[in-house]
Sequence to fold (670 residues):
Amino acid sequence: MAGLRVDETRCIGCTRCVRACATGGIEVKDRLARPTDACVFCGACIDACPVDAISIERKEAGADLVAYRDIWVFVQADEHDDVLPVAFELLGRARALAAQRGCAVVALLPQGPGSAGSHERELIARGADRVLTVHDERMVPLDAEVCARWVCDLAQRLKPEIILYGATAFGRELAPMVAVRLETGLTADCTRLEIDGATGLLQQTRPAFGGNLMATIECPARRPQMATVRPGVFAGDACPRSSVSSDAAAKDQVVEYPLDASVRSRVRVLATEPAQQGASIAQAKRLVVVGRGIGSKKQLPLMQRLADALDAELGCTRPLVEAGWLEYPHQVGQTGVSVAPELLISIGVSGAIQHLAGIGGAKTIIAINEDAQAPIFGIAHYKAVGDAIEIVDNLVRELEDAVARS
Amino acid sequence: MHIVVCVKAVPASTEVKMDPVTNTIVRDGGDAVVNPFDASALELALRLREERRAAGEDVRVSVLSMGIPATERLLRDCIARGATDALLLSDRAFAGADTLATTHALTCGMCELGMPDLVLCGKMAVDGDTAQIGPELAGALDMACVADVRTLMACANDAVTVRAGGDAGVSLVEATLPCVLTVAKEAATLRMPSIAGVLAAEHATVDVRGAAEVGADAARIGLAGSPTQVVRSFVPEQQAAGVEVSGDAIGQARQLVRIIGEVA
Ligand SMILES: Cc1cc2nc3c(=O)[nH]c(=O)nc-3n(C[C@H](O)[C@H](O)[C@H](O)COP(=O)(O)OP(=O)(O)OC[C@H]3O[C@@H](n4cnc5c(N)ncnc54)[C@H](O)[C@@H]3O)c2cc1C
Fold:
C-alpha cells in the first residue's frame, strides 16, 4: 500500500519530523519515527529529516501523458456579457507557462446565441492563440453542470495538458465538476503557477494545512492538470487592453464546438437579488485593512474615518468577519478577496499566510502593528511599530486637518 | 425522503502558530469538532425533517464522514442532535486522500447508506477550504448541484428551492432532485442536543466501516487514489525589510501622511 515510509536503519529519533508536522501525523517512539493515522502526506517531515530517512511511496497508474498538449484557460462572462478580468490575468500567466512548454494557449469561451464576437478578438489580442467557443442558449445563464459537460467533451477529444479557471463562485463549482468527470486532480486557489524545468509538470503553490506553510502540489500521472486562481492574484501578468488591435481574429483561430444536444440543465434561476453596492475591495485603488489588533468593534468608525479621509475602501481579516464586525465581502485573503491596490494600509494585522495570499498584488504596503516581529512586516514597504489606535487617531487628525486647510 | 449530510472533523482551532525561533509549528492540541459549515447543513436537514413530519412524512437524516476512529464521538453527537443514523468510513487505506479520492470514498458510503434524494455538505471545510467536495460529489453521483446555499426555501418530492450565492449576487434557484447542496455557515445554527436525543445517542450504533466493507476500489481511495501530491511544503521567505517609520505616535502619523502623499 502507498504510504509514509521510515527507513529504520537511518532514523536517529531526533524528533525534527515531529516538530515539522502540522497535523500530529508522525511520532517518535523508542527513538524511531512512525507515522500516525493523522498523517496527511504533506511531506513536511521529509524536508525536515536530516538523515533522509523518510519517504512517501506511491503507486501510479501511468496514463499516456505525451498525448496531452496546450494550456487552456476558461473564460467567464458576467450577466452583462462582459468577460471577467481574471481570464486575462490567467491568459497572461498561461503565456509564460506555454513559452516553457512550447505549446499553445487556448481560451474556452461559452456564450449565448446572441454574442457579437468581440470577445474572441480581445482574448486573442491578450494572449490566446486560439479560442474554442460555443453559441448556445443553454449557456445563459451559465450553468456549472452544463458547462462542465461541454468542457469535458472538449478535453476528452482535444487532450489539453493544463486547464486554468478563475476562482469565481462559478469557477469554483465548474472546476471540480470537470475534475471528477475526467478523474483528474484539481488544486484550489493557487497563488503561484510554474513549470518544473526538469519534469515539465505544473507546480501549483497554495497556502496549506492551516499553518504558516505553503505547499507545492503536482498532478504527475493524470491529465489535464487543473488549478483555480483567485481574481487579482496574477493581475500583473495580464496583457493590457491597449494592445488589442481592431483587426478581426483570423477565422481559423476561432473554432465553434457545439454542446451535446442531450445536455439539459437541472438548475433553474428564478430571480437574482442584485449584489450589494459598495465593498468593491477587489478593484479598490486604496485600501485600509484592519485586523484583530484594532482591539474592538468600537474602533471601526475610526478606521472608516481613515478610509474616508484617504478615499479608500475598508477590508479586514477573517476573524473580524467571524466575529460579525464586518461582512464577508470585506474579507481579504485566501478565502476572501484578493486585492491589488496601489496603496494598502494594514492595521493590527498579524500577516498570517492565508491573509498574505490575498495581498500579494498590492503595490505599496504600510503596516501598523505593536509587535515588531509580526510577519506582516516581512512584506510591508513601510513599517510603523506601535499602538494601532494611537497612530490611526493621529493619522486621521493629520489627514482631516490637511483637507480642512486646503 | 432520505437526506445524507456529509460531515468532516476539523481541529477546534484552525489557528496554527509558528514558533519564530525554531520555525516549527506550535500545536495546541485542541479537540476535533464538526466543521461549522457541515453543522449548518445538518441543521437544515433536521428542519426539513420536522416540516415534513408535520405533513405526515418520515424523513431519514443520515450523517456520513470519512475520518479517524475518534470521529465516531462527533457522529454520535450528531445523532444526539437529531440525525437518524451515522456511517463512519475509517481505514488506513483512506488516509492521504485529496478531493477526488475523498469523493470516491463518500460515494461508496452513499451506496452503503442507500441513495439519498438530497445530499447536504458544508460549503467548505475551515481547515482545507477547497470547496470542491460538494460539486465533485454531484458529478460522481450524477446529481444536480447548487453551491453556497444561504436559505432553504422549500423542498418538494422532485425539486428543491433555495437562495444561493453566485457571482451576480444571491439568486433564487430551483433544482431537481436528487440534488447536492453545499451550505453556507449563515444558513442555520445547529441546535443543541435534547435530553431525549442524548439518551438515544447513547444506545445508537455508529456504523464504522473499512474500505473493503464498502466496496471501495483500493486504487481510487487514499493516497494511492489521489491524483494530486504535495511535493514540497515550506515557510515562505520574508522579503527585504521595509522602511522603518519610527518616533512617537504623532511623529509616525506625520511621516505616514508624507509617505501616502508620495506613493499614491
Ligand atoms: C483555511 C484557512 C483559511 C483562512 N483564510 C483567511 C483569509 O482569507 N483571510 C484572513 O485574513 N485570514 C484567513 N485565515 C485566518 C488566518 O490564519 C489568521 O488567523 C488571520 O488572518 C489573523 O487575523 P488577524 O491578523 O486579524 O489577527 P491576529 O493573528 O490575532 O493578529 C492581530 C495582530 O494585531 C496586533 N496587535 C494587537 N494589539 C495591537 C495594538 N493595540 N496595536 C497594534 N497592533 C496590535 C498583534 O501584534 C497581531 O499581530 C484563514 C485560516 C485558515 C485555517
